[in-house]
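[PROTEIN RECORD]
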Amino acid sequence: MESIGLKIETFASAQEFLNAYDPSRPGCLVTDVRMPGMSGIELQSKLAAEEVTLPIIVVSGYADVPTAVRSMKRGAIDFVEKPFDEQMMLERIQLSILEDARLRQERAARERTMARLESLTRRERQVMDLVILGKSNKEVARALDISPKTVEVHRSHVMVKMQAESLAELVRIAGSCTISKGNP
């Protein structure tokens, strides 16, 4: 791995990894099914319970179908049997690192969108919720007991704050955060 410029860190146990794990650092985890103390599968379960999205490659010299299935159900990106081809492992690690980068970019984009959403006033949020449901300005005005002109002002503020250039884009942005009425 170092021969192709990948930085690696090794740990004597799953607990040692957990003690040192920094979620802000990108990468992937290669773990063995059988390790001292906590198994690789138990480590996977612990990370999943803590909602850690680090891509995990599970390695085993004692692979069986139930173990592989259990590992994949717990979110492993891959399951590799020993002995393995080094080039194949490098490729899988590189793919896992790319997946981690993709997930981090998606998460950052969602966080930026959520920050924009939180910048809306309560009334702007009400207007947005109705607009993304396809309601016209008049329908929004009736539903909120305000004038259509006031709806236009709020709608304009929503578009600026949410950085949407069209209604279609606003709907897409809202959908990307799974925004539901009144509940970000």
The CA atoms of residues 85 and 91 lie 10 Å apart. Residues 179-184 have pLDDT under 50 and may be disordered. The two ends are 41 Å apart (CA to CA). The chain has two domains: 2-108, 119-176.
